[in-house]
Amino acid sequence: MTTDQGAVRPDQGVVKVHRVGAVVVALVIATFGVLGLVGGLSFFDTEGAPVLGLSTNGALSTISLVTAVVLVAAAIRGGRLASTLMMVVGTLFLVSAFVNLGLIGTAYNLLAFRLPNVFFSIGAGMLLLFTGAYGRASAKLPPDNPYKLERRPGDPEDHGDAAEAPQDSHRQPRPSSPQEARADLAMAEAERALAQGAADDEQRRRLAAIDHARTHEERRAIWMRHTEQSEPSGH
């Protein structure tokens, strides 16, 4: 099955940001993990040993390698699952930073954390959160954004749009004529085609034209105007 490369091009920027963020963090922690394991560190040594300016032991090195593999898999997978996974891992980095900050200098510092580890975990966690949420958590997304096309009423990410939209914008009143029914059907087909990367130039142009409309009636009216303008005169 072939796909129109032009149709997926608008999505590629979002996907690339996710992948770059995941790969950057994965490469750093993978290098950190490998050097720690090569050094033959004991697994739960609370003192740790310096590696790349951070402190580590066998346990932290192993966790770093596993996390790197998960992030690389997310980068390869792409899409909503990868975005969610990056935000989850980013949150875990932040939680780890603050939990282990309280364990420094105690017998429970099983990952051999020091202050540089805390700062790195905060930085890596924020990077993963921001890149994972990029193009997904914004209140205003372009019409061809893959996450906007997947949204359904009640999605957590949809609250930003709902805050700006009028109360009746979600309603789709019944068409009052065959022309309006055909317009509704054509709009739905165009949106499905765009989500699947199969929309033609005309469908993409019309969807862009109706994107600024805030109610279904406005979208339908704009769509019908474009239909009338595109019909040959005399028909």
Overview of the structural elements:
It contains 9 helices and 2 strands; from the N terminus they run H-E-E-H-H-H-H-H-H-H-H. By secondary structure, the chain is an all-alpha fold. The chain is 65% helix and 3% strand. It is elongated. Strand 1 (49-51) and strand 2 (54-56) form a beta hairpin. It has 2 domains: 5-133; 165-230, no CATH class. The protein has a two-stranded antiparallel ribbon.
Produce the secondary structure layout.
Layout: H1 5-38, E1 49-51, E2 54-56, H2 58-77, H3 79-103, H4 115-133, H5 146-150, H6 159-164, H7 178-195, H8 201-210, H9 216-230
Antiparallel strand pairs: 1-2
Helix pairs in contact: 1-2, 1-3, 1-4, 2-3, 3-4, 7-9, 8-9
Keywords:
235 residues; mainly alpha; 2 domains; two-stranded antiparallel ribbon; 9 helices; disordered N terminus
Low-pLDDT ranges:
1-11, 152-170
Order of helices and strands: HEEHHHHHHHH
Q: How many structural domains in the coordinates?
A: 2
How many β-strand stretches? 2
How does the major sheet shape up?
A: 2 strands, antiparallel
Q: Total helix count?
A: 9
Widest sheet, order of strands = 1-2
Oligomer: single chain
Beta-strand percentage range: under 5%
Q: Give the termini separation.
A: 37 Å
Q: How would you classify the helix and strand content by structural class?
A: mainly alpha
Helical proportion?
55-70%
* Nearest-integer average pLDDT: 79
- Shape label: elongated
Q: Report Rg.
A: 25 Å
